[in-house]
Amino acid sequence: MPYTDNSLSFDFTLPEYTDPLKNIYSYTMEGVDTHWTEGANNHYARYAGLQPGHYVFKVKAANNDGIWGQATVLAIDIIPPFWQRPWFIFLEISFFVAIIVAAVFLLQRGAFKRKLRVFELQQKIQSERERISRDLHDNIGTQLSLIHKNIREVANPSTKITNADRSKRLATAQQSSAEVIDVLRETIWALNKPEISLEEFADKLKRFIQRNLASSPGLSMKFKEIDENKSVMLSPIEALNLFRICQEGITNTLKYAMASLLNVSVQADKGKYTICIMDNGTGFDPDVIDSGVHYGLENMKFRANEILCNFSIETIPGKGTTINLAKR
């Protein structure tokens, strides 16, 4: 019987008609009763709210002479609901075991990921330290060496020098010290912020060009940028490397290109940026360049690769040079 039909009633009678009012009945339900119930002439029994399980109903009777007959037996099975059946209980246990195993796995995985993040952060910090050291060495180290050399020659000249030579060396040292200060300011500008917008980077680059145009009176600048630059954010190291790449390219234009126009554009599209630096100067032959320029180009490529940025340079002798940077 289904578990919903768990209230049972029994009606029984003894086929003895000599004196039926003196017939006596006794019954019990194994699984519920602990003893037989003497019902006298009562031939009715009821059990309500039975739990799922196996039961055996037994009833016997005696006639008016007190002679008892054999008990009549009725086996009853009340089927439990599906959630109480063994297969469902097994599934429940398996489910909870699976949840525990999954929870332990996720906790261990989370702990592993946290350790991995700490390790990656340490690696990143170390990598950034190396980048900063390289940046300081490439820019400040060279300038300080030049300053030291010029001051030493003025203070303790190996040969007799004129006042003009002395003034020239001091002017060179002064210029180099100013460049060192600029490099330090640019490095601090980048590293003091958690992130830098492309718009702020463009403003910094524009000021750098305007400040250096004073030494090139025949050169004019066109600078193009768009409002979308506000939404593109750069990490400090990315901004610093980009600035150094642009700085190297623009400095080459100022020193060697003999150009009359410098076009610079900083633009963003779908979260990625493109930077173009173009002049109409003399250009150069990539196969015939001095070691200083060659080192500068290699350094620009290295920096671009470090920040996952595509770098290309196109130059035509007598027609100009174009540098393109694009975020991958």
Largest sheet: 5 strands, mixed
Q: Low-confidence segments, ≥5 residues, pLDDT <50?
A: none
Q: Quick one: how many beta strands?
A: 13
What is the architecture of the largest domain at the second tier of CATH?
Answer: 2-Layer Sandwich
Rg from Cα: 48 Å
User: What structural category characterises the helix and strand content?
Assistant: alpha+beta
In the CATH hierarchy, what is the superfamily of the largest domain? Histidine kinase-like ATPase, C-terminal domain
> Rough shape?
rod-shaped
CATH C-level category of the largest domain: Alpha Beta
Q: Mean pLDDT score, rounded?
A: 84
Helical coverage, percent range: 40-55%
Distance between the termini: 71 Å
Number of DSSP helical runs: 5
How are the SSEs ordered, and which strands pair?
Blueprint: E1 8-11, E2 24-30, E3 37-40, E4 44-47, E5 53-62, E6 72-78, H1 86-155, H2 163-191, E7 196-197, H3 198-212, E8 220-225, E9 233-234, H4 236-257, E10 261-269, E11 272-279, H5 291-306, E12 309-316, E13 320-327
Parallel strand pairs: 8-10
Antiparallel strand pairs: 1-4, 2-3, 2-5, 5-6, 7-9, 10-11, 11-13, 12-13
Helix pairs in contact: 1-2, 2-4, 3-4, 4-5
